[in-house]
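Colleagues,

Please find the record for the four-part complex below.
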Amino acid sequence: MLVIMNSNATEKDIQRVALFLESKGFEARISHGEARVVVHAIGIIEEADQRDFELLTGVCEVIRVSTSYKLAARVSQGKDTVVEVNGVKFGDKYTGLIAGPCAVESYNQLDETAQELSESNVKILRGGAFKPRTSPYAFQGLGEEGLKILRSVADNHNMAVTSEIMDISQLDMFMRYVDILQVGARNMQNFNLLKELGKIHRPVILKRGLSATYEEWLMSAEYIMAGGNNQVILCERGIRTYEKFTRNTLDLSAIPVIKKLSHLPIIIDPSHATGLRDKVEPMSRASIAAGCDGLIIEVHNNPDCAMCDGAQSLYPWQYDLLYKQIKQIAPIVGKEII
Amino acid sequence: MLVIMNSNATEKDIQRVALFLESKGFEARISHGEARVVVHAIGIIEEADQRDFELLTGVCEVIRVSTSYKLAARVSQGKDTVVEVNGVKFGDKYTGLIAGPCAVESYNQLDETAQELSESNVKILRGGAFKPRTSPYAFQGLGEEGLKILRSVADNHNMAVTSEIMDISQLDMFMRYVDILQVGARNMQNFNLLKELGKIHRPVILKRGLSATYEEWLMSAEYIMAGGNNQVILCERGIRTYEKFTRNTLDLSAIPVIKKLSHLPIIIDPSHATGLRDKVEPMSRASIAAGCDGLIIEVHNNPDCAMCDGAQSLYPWQYDLLYKQIKQIAPIVGKEII
Amino acid sequence: MLVIMNSNATEKDIQRVALFLESKGFEARISHGEARVVVHAIGIIEEADQRDFELLTGVCEVIRVSTSYKLAARVSQGKDTVVEVNGVKFGDKYTGLIAGPCAVESYNQLDETAQELSESNVKILRGGAFKPRTSPYAFQGLGEEGLKILRSVADNHNMAVTSEIMDISQLDMFMRYVDILQVGARNMQNFNLLKELGKIHRPVILKRGLSATYEEWLMSAEYIMAGGNNQVILCERGIRTYEKFTRNTLDLSAIPVIKKLSHLPIIIDPSHATGLRDKVEPMSRASIAAGCDGLIIEVHNNPDCAMCDGAQSLYPWQYDLLYKQIKQIAPIVGKEII
Amino acid sequence: MLVIMNSNATEKDIQRVALFLESKGFEARISHGEARVVVHAIGIIEEADQRDFELLTGVCEVIRVSTSYKLAARVSQGKDTVVEVNGVKFGDKYTGLIAGPCAVESYNQLDETAQELSESNVKILRGGAFKPRTSPYAFQGLGEEGLKILRSVADNHNMAVTSEIMDISQLDMFMRYVDILQVGARNMQNFNLLKELGKIHRPVILKRGLSATYEEWLMSAEYIMAGGNNQVILCERGIRTYEKFTRNTLDLSAIPVIKKLSHLPIIIDPSHATGLRDKVEPMSRASIAAGCDGLIIEVHNNPDCAMCDGAQSLYPWQYDLLYKQIKQIAPIVGKEII
């Protein structure tokens, strides 16, 4: 921790800061700059709150220098983490693809969609069974029945599946049906859930919260990893900004930033980020060109009749066209798509 | 729903929109303006997604006209909801006060704090037993032991208590100890939790999510009310903006806005909103002057040694001074503090 | 400047940073913490860009420790700056009031408004002659004719006047008519204009830009002060956030924050901040309770027929009621309104 | 305009709205929905302010249906606008490239940079002569001397030039030296400047304001076009959000959105958007893959010694590599780079 003093701080102020630091377990090292004095607090005291020092007389600003995430940090691991499911790899030079409808609606709907997607080489199927909906009066998903359909359809087409878990109480059920567990944006800081996911041995897609910073996002990954589960895939899905024309603002700079801060793979969800089908295609291509480790895209066999988020779902033929484009772009940036 | 056509939309485009609306169960009424045509979709179809219409050729914009919250809406109830706990009232002309430390640390800490607060006429004690912390390595609260201490100390001083519930699985435990359940900002859209809280007969403080709109906030209240529990107190605690000097940006305009949209009481948490003790006092006074229905303020018997959020906790003597100021301000704006 | 190294930075990385710092004119002092090494760059080199160091191998983060504003900083001046115009004082223990219509529309409109306002003890009249409008097709103000009317009406009622200047080229004209020059939010970083305002001897109200940080705002004040004009009044008028229900989000925490960072007075414009009349009153009272140094409020003799921003203008009787309330609140927080 | 009534609005409320609309020049058409009544205001009254109606009793919300930009709107012109300078085209199927240092520092610096860039086929050189700097104490640019150097170096290498104009008073000077005028983000709503730029016959790059919506941006373009100058190139350069790790948040969704709303070309400035060299390359590739009409990139012959923004400037060899990559990506999305 660094305590930066005001330019008019007195010697007494500085001494008080040093003493207070020492009372909290730090060693205080005082450095006199031309403009101001900086007190370097040596030591790692997890519980120390920088704001306690900000309130002392003569203090201008306090800066924390050690990041709180350790296992998720780039410095903790030389090589990129690669998560592999059903032959699809995410991370390092590999870009994995996941596709499927927003919600599981029926066996036929999902089977038709999966049939078309498997012709475009999709090996991991997405589909929601429990839907977090802003309104209590909206369709909330088929529940366990949805997971059963998902599993059965996927087995039919030799696919793996991913679906969103909403609550600790659903964990056993999800373990019976799902290959990759998704944590939605609204649950990124549901810490009890994250702790439980740390105890399982299955990959987790951790979506970025609607207004989460990169650091908070990595801290949530740390919750999972601290429990022993290293198979975390980060997923950017748009952040909330003042601009309301698109559903959210897709923050593609997250790709190079996360790659610098962490060894974990980062994938993009352009469907939730933009909320409209005609924006999904350009943003998917852009994600690939920026070097992402994967995409998760909503595709529906009949978007006009979808029970939720049809407007942001691609038609299967659109997905196929997009697949062909991104297959061409990936090698230009040194990535490989199966 | 209103579908607004582009100024160059053709008659065919308009007819296609009308037909599509009818296929979804609406009656379509077409109105020719000078600049453009508007199609008014008559009917209430909960599942209709406005974006499906935005994608049709010739459509400029689609506007939903019926709000999705009904029970929480001002129009559903003539009189302001008043929630009363231990003689303290929130809503209508009453302003209730809640105070206490961020976290329950020990019996002595809490008892000393409660003793001092009861001298300032505090009748509802706050204190966290389960703490949602960004870092997995930070103090996570005393758990059930904390709730026991909270209950016991409060009984000692004839106080009621409020504490934050983090998960459905904790509900039975909370019902044994706590008079008002708090839903934290990170859980505002933990819909499974909200549904369960709808089934109990105890007041709930629903904090606004870090980047939740007024409408989303009221929709979350609706989840609780739809289950039959009408004792919902909304709590503004700062939103996330580009300005990082304060922990969050306290949005005091929420007070008059919520009062127009809803009959539910709205209280302010200036401690989490600003994150620093010396900002808590002016913002508390400002909240009262803006007509809020209550305050929830962090006070600690010894903030310099607090295990969490000490920097934003008032000293008991500061709370007492503040109490005297707001007692004077309240009647100027037609409110009453006990 | 403080250069914080990664925990796995090599001795070579650290030496390279030290050498690079020295090549830029700094003295480099290396401090070994438990978690990581910090290099303290001693010296004040205005042109040094912290990002140049962020790009060096092994560097985690670079922190600037000297603020760039000096004259505006609290540490540069012990006492609060008080700006006085026509007997009205802004700053220290004084709270000044400014009122008037959004735009000058005609002699009669302004004279009637001023007549009513003078009965509520208003001594400084506001009124726009050049209006910055988002649309090129909207009313752009009466121009110099508007300034003439403003001057003449104010003289009639023994008032001072303030109006918004949009461009350097208007400066001579404004000097002929106006007592306090206003810089609008859109011009907060019109640096050429700020430099010119530094050369005059007349108070300037500097509105906060729509997404300006406190530091950028104070830096803009510094532009004016660096030219020799110390009579700067800062004006918070709402910032842009994701919440669109109100026109902007009024950031009242700016009051205690600015008072800590600077000696300059800070006033609030609740009319532009909220955009709706029924929000102006509670936010005005809240501003006073938070300890602001003044208010600038839109009042119109006939808001329903106003040529611009009528919806956010108070009726004169509303202003009078509000005036009586804030006269009661001010002394509770140690402030004085004439 | 559409006035949406509350569900409990009385017949009297509705009549009052209709009468008020008529008093403002509209025809009022009342449509009874199942949930609520909508009053459609027929007519185009530029001065009508929707908020005036929001304040009437019984009104829930008021929606403006006609956009205020007309000339910039997609519906006003069938074909994409193509701006051509020195053989480089922006718009439709063409993607143009602009490169050069942040600031003109000296003849040698610029000439060396231009020499290297011309080997990478750059035909339009950028370089700032007047620099808008947050701090009054930072380097403000070489002024007219900088423009002279820019012109002379460009002529040397058969290049066209673009530079940022800060103020109306500089217009004549810029017309002597510069082929494309740039309006910076801070000046996007400097309406007097925009009006003057409407009178010239030279292309203008209009950067998006730091927190400008798409609509405000297009309205600013409209100011220029309303004066008769149709050669407007829109430039996205990052918006301000809560995430501070990158300088700004690059909003690449602006590309498909603007292409739907307008016929004007849109280019991307990845240098200012991200603020760090290692993010510029992936974001440039992403922009091309999303279908942008051009890029403006900072390149410096010796970034480590740059007088401003060196950290975000590419080395010439990096630009060359990037150029080769984007040449491959462009045709995949149907675009052509010379």
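Residues 316-332 of chain C form the longest helix (17 residues).

Comments are welcome before we finalize the supplementary table.
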